[in-house]
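Appendix B. One record, verbatim.
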Amino acid sequence: MSENKLNLNQKIAELDKKVEWFYSEDFALENAVEKYKDAIKLAKDIEKDLKNLKNEIEVLSEDFSK
């Protein structure tokens, strides 16, 4: 599933899964760097979504306060 098509809650759940892998019995050092890069990319995407939501809320709050 493409990360861009996921909603914010789905992205956060996917990031949780990626992080849990590091604590699981499936952890393999050979795969850690690639898994870490994937998790960082997803975390940045989540951060972007959160900033967009914050901006939208601020705009709506300004409109409401007028």
